């Protein structure tokens, strides 16, 4: 993409309504624009990152054997009356009436709808286990939408639902989700720690939230500092392997780590004093096992191998896809702007032409641009007639992890400059070498 043709409405001023750095940077980098409280338009740069996050979630869910599908945002209230949640959800649910005076709602989550689909089509244990998920917009009429996409009213969420014959099978689904989430967040360049939590409106008593530690996080967390040293790494996972998934589950949840709702004095007993931590975190996902709560209320049953008809065991599993963008920026920025992890960056590499209009500089930039694209990379070429300072400031603000700078002086010596956004370190090398280097970096991701 050429920057001269891209819609990138960067702001010079810091928007006064934004209280936390990720919100400020998303506004300043022209990624989002508020349309009303807690509701945002996703401008091209923001939308590009959202798609990257979504793709990682799709890949990791499907790797774990979960099936993608899509359910409507507008749902009938009747289904929610069956589970009892039409009343229980309270003011957070956006309620709508159609022209026939029927009660509809904008989905805050989809346990009821998926259970309705299940009961219409599945009647035998032979069709289990079954896990389906969607990535769809949700609406919760939060009393205090704030921090930009972090606590929106409209937000983008992956919600997955498992159906199993027995509690043991459903707990394997729970563990499988935990493992797939660890891998998902790691690919996004994040350390998200599973912490035992309170199940709130979803029900059940088995639930973990995934927390990214950040001072601006809305959750208070209590943990053994040893959990921050656990690392998922490149493990070979067989998602059908019950013992392996349970092993990862144990490894990542045996140490003490809890969010505020369930915190008690236990931390000070369970953890040696020097390892006790009380901090803040951003909740980027949550997994639940709630047994037969919905299947019993809504008659989602199967015939077991013994011929008996039993309600299925269920869980649901969420990832806050739009919130993740804020969480990544909170975890990865400096005073000049965003620093995207390679796995989610909107463009792989920026190209800065220091002398736009100079025949040689233009030709060298174009060759870099085409050379990177030919290797399947997605560069952003700043071909505007702007000063170097302004071009560097824009690149730093939007946070592309790698920048190639091209100027007449370097070209005389046959070199361009490759700069890491994260370390600020630069290296001079011939243009073909720079292309090769960038391609190698991304091939390793
Ligand atoms: N039905 C379950 C699992 S699919 C569920 O809805 N879980 S949840 O309430 O925990 O939401 C899942 C994730 O969505 C949360 O972990 C959080 O990352 C994200 N989320 C929840 N509310 C908001 C919000 N108002 N703005 C942005 N993201 C949100």
Overview of the structural elements:
The chain has 445 residues and is of the alpha+beta class. The chain contains 14 helices and 23 strands. The strands form six sheets. Strands 3, 7, 8, 9, 10, 11, 12, 13 and 16 form a nine-stranded mixed beta sheet that branches. Strands 20-19-21-22-23 form a five-stranded mixed beta sheet, sandwiched between helices. A hairpin with a 5-residue loop joins β22 (416-420) and β23 (426-429). α6 (167-187) packs across α7 (242-253). It is globular and about 80 Å long. Bound molecules: 5'-O-(N-(L-cysteinyl)-sulfamoyl)adenosine. 5'-O-(N-(L-cysteinyl)-sulfamoyl)adenosine (5CA) binds next to β8, β13, β16 and α10.
- Shape, please? globular
- List segments where confidence is low: pLDDT < 50 over at least 5 consecutive residues: none
How many domains in all? Answer: 2
Individual helix count: 14
Beta-strand percentage range: 25-35%
Helix content: 25-40%
The count of β-strands is 23
* Major sheet characteristics: 9 strands, mixed
Mean pLDDT score: 96
Bound ligand species? 5'-O-(N-(L-cysteinyl)-sulfamoyl)adenosine
Q: Just name the CATH architecture of the largest domain.
A: 2-Layer Sandwich
Question: What Rg is obtained from the alpha carbons, in whole angstroms?
Answer: 24 Å
Q: What do we call the CATH topology of the largest domain? A: BirA Bifunctional Protein, domain 2
Name of the top-level CATH class of the largest domain: Alpha Beta
What is the assigned CATH homologous superfamily of the largest domain? Bira Bifunctional Protein, Domain 2
Which structural class do the helices and strands define? alpha+beta
Q: Give the terminus-to-terminus CA distance.
A: 22 Å
């Amino acid at each position: 993409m050429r920057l001269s043709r891209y819609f990138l409405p960067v702001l010079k001023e810091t928007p006064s309504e934004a209280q936390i750095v990720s919100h400020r940077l998303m506004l300043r980098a022209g990624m989002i624009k508020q349309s009303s409280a807690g509701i945002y338009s996703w401008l091209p740069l923001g939308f590009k990152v959202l798609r990257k996050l979504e793709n990682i979630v799709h890949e990791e869910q499907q790797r774990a054997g979960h099936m993608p599908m899509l359910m409507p945002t507008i749902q009938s209230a009747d289904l929610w009356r069956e589970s009892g949640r039409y009343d229980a959800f309270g003011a957070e649910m956006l309620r709508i009436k159609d022209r026939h005076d029927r009660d509809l709602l904008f989905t805050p989550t989809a346990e009821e709808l998926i259970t309705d689909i299940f009961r219409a089509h599945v009647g035998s244990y032979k069709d289990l286990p079954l896990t389906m998920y969607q990535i769809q917009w949700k609406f919760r009429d939060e009393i205090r939408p704030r921090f930009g996409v972090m606590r929106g009213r409209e937000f983008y969420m992956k919600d997955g639902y498992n159906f199993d014959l027995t509690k043991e099978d459903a707990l394997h689904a729970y563990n499988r989700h935990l493992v797939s989430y660890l891998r998902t967040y790691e690919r996004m360049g994040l350390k998200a720690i599973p912490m035992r939590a309170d199940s709130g409106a979803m029900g059940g008593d088995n639930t973990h939230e995934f927390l990214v530690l950040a001072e601006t996080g809305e959750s208070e967390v209590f943990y053994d500092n040893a959990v921050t040293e656990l690392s998922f790494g490149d493990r070979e996972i067989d998602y059908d392997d019950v013992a392996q998934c349970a092993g990862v589950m144990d490894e990542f949840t045996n140490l003490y780590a809890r969010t505020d709702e369930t915190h008690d004095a236990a931390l000070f007993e369970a953890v040696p004093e020097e390892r006790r931590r009380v901090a803040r975190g951003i909740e980027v996902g949550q997994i639940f096992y709630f047994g037969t709560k919905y299947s019993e209320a809504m008659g989602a049953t199967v015939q077991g191998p013994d011929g008996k008809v039993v309600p299925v065991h269920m869980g649901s599993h969420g990832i806050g896809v739009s919130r993740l963008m804020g969480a990544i920026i909170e975890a990865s920025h400096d005073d000049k702007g965003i620093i995207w992890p390679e796995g989610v960056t909107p463009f792989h590499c920026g190209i800065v032409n220091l002398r736009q209009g100079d025949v040689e500089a233009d030709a060298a930039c174009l060759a870099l641009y085409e050379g990177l694209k030919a290797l399947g990379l997605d560069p952003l070429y700043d071909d505007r007639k702007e000063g170097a300072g302004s071009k560097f400031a824009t690149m730093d603000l939007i946070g592309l992890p790698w920048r190639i700078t091209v100027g007449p002086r370097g070209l005389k010596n046959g070199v361009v400059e490759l700069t890491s956004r994260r370390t600020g370190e630069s290296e001079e090398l011939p243009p073909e070498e720079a292309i090769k280097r960038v391609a190698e970096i991304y091939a390793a991701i």
